[in-house]
Specification:
- The protein is mainly beta.
- It is 5% helix and 30% strand.
- The protein is built from 1 helix and 12 strands; from the N terminus they run E-E-H-E-E-E-E-E-E-E-E-E-E.
Length: 175
């Protein structure tokens, strides 16, 4: 089966995101990236994506950064997506958003309607989500392989109107 990066692909808990399924090998992912790189600059443009700087300098991870992000005080300000590998296998995909650069926001949706920038409380229309104080993420026992984070990193009881700024899909340990 053919896969390709898509900045608007559906978010599938425990399965994949960015148009990529979890379980792909590092080599397969780097070949998909290489096909999209402009010259030798390390800048790539995927389907529906802005220009992205591909950074594979850290072992076990590929970082996708906004190539033209203006307000970048720290490196993480431009970090838009992370592909995490364990023993050369893609096990986690994380997208994140920081305010002020809407054109860089991953546009894929979860449950057909929820994505980066949506309200956390909107998740409750589909499943029950709890807040984990230690990891500062929302998770559901009903939806395996999904975590979301907000800009406030606290429970909805403390601040009800939180926006989603971080989405992670991963292979659940027990299936």
């Amino acid at each position: 089966m053919m896969y390709d990066f898509d900045w608007g692909a559906e978010i599938k808990p425990g399965v994949g995101m960015l148009g990529l399924p979890l379980g792909l090998t590092y080599d397969a992912v780097t070949k998909l990236i290489a096909a999209k790189v402009e010259g030798k600059t390390g800048i790539a443009v995927f389907k529906n994506s802005p220009r992205l700087l591909v950074d594979s300098s850290q072992e076990g991870a590929i970082f996708l950064r906004g190539a033209d992000v203006k307000e970048r005080t720290y490196d993480w300000h431009g970090l838009l997506a992370r592909l995490i590998f364990d023993q050369e296998i893609l096990t986690q995909i994380i997208v994140q958003y920081f305010k002020g650069e809407d054109k860089y926001r991953y546009s894929g949706k979860l449950f057909g309607d929820i994505g980066l920038g949506s309200k956390v409380v909107e998740l409750m229309e589909f499943h029950k989500f709890d807040f984990d104080d230690g990891d500062e993420v929302f998770y559901s026992n009903e939806v395996a392989g999904l975590e979301v984070g907000s800009e406030n990193s606290c429970s909805l009881e403390e601040i009800p109107g939180q926006n989603i700024v971080y989405i992670k899909v991963f292979k659940p340990m027990f299936q």
